[in-house]
Amino acid sequence: AEAVVFVYLAQVNYQLEDYRAAIEALDRAGTVVERVPSVYHMKSQAYWLLGEPVMALATLDQAAQVFPEDSSFIRRKVFYLIDLGFFQEAAVQGRRYLEQSEGSLEDYVAIGNALRASGELEEAAEFLEEAQLRFPNSPEVKKVLAHVYIEREQMSAAADLLYKAALLDPDLLSEAAELSRRSGQTYRALTLNGQLVDQPEKYRQRLALYLELKNYEQAAAMEIPLRRVGLMEDEDLRYALAYALFKTGDFEEAELQLAELTRPDLFRK
């Protein structure tokens, strides 16, 4: 008969992944638990995991009315809206949430991504630039902001940001090098490429950079490293190597490489 017993029962059922039983147990607990914030969180997540997002959101709205000072319900709602693809509403609710709380790095990145996905590129850029000031050592904020700049066709600004992000997170080196190449900063791209640990990715990208710089001799000399890491099976790379050999005047070796190709589109080239 005591409400707390039903709350315990709900917790057990939730752990057993019987979310319907968890909701029923919370309903049976009665009005006594209406002032317990964790009950609303458990109930909304149970509805969400049952694939009933409307009820999950309604539960959070109810909780926000009961606990207007508790921003955790709006935060959860923002992430639900993002998962549902309602990016514009997620961005609106996200702004509301950040007015009530400090907000974590994850919050800023998620809301910035929601703004970008909703097409609000100007607002996304302003929001993420503000996030950069709050989290200057976060490569994630710089990465998301760089993608906003890419969509705005501001390639140089995007490349500069991703370069700074790569200095903080080496996993972004390859992406930063590629973006530097696309923005015309080829020598910076080569510098970043030289720091890559992933050898196949490093050689694949370096061949493209040599060709872009018209360093055909250096590109033609890459056959051995490409073969060593198993990239000569990639016909696009074999064709690129053949092109470099052709440009250096080594027509015989170029022909040998072309003879290995099987793809019609490469024959047409």
Name its key features.
269 residues; mainly alpha; 18 helices; 75% helix
Q: Mind explaining what this structure looks like?
A:
The chain is an all-alpha fold. Helix content is 75%, strand content 0%.
Record the SSE blueprint:
Layout: H1 3-15, H2 19-28, H3 37-49, H4 53-66, H5 72-84, H6 87-100, H7 105-117, H8 121-134, H9 139-151, H10 155-168, H11 173-182, H12 186-193, H13 199-212, H14 216-220, H15 223-228, H16 235-248, H17 251-258, H18 264-268
Helix pairs in contact: 1-2, 2-3, 3-4, 4-5, 5-6, 5-7, 6-7, 7-8, 7-9, 8-9, 9-10, 10-11, 11-12, 11-13, 12-13, 13-16, 16-17
| Approximate helicity band | over 70%
Strand count: 0
- Which class of secondary structure composition applies to the elements? mainly alpha
Q: The biggest beta sheet, please? A: none
N→C terminal distance: 80 Å
Oligomeric state: single chain
Number of helices: 18
Order of helices and strands: HHHHHHHHHHHHHHHHHH
Low-confidence stretches: none
Mean pLDDT over the residues: 91
User: Which descriptor suits the 3D outline?
Assistant: elongated
> Nearest-angstrom radius of gyration?
27 Å
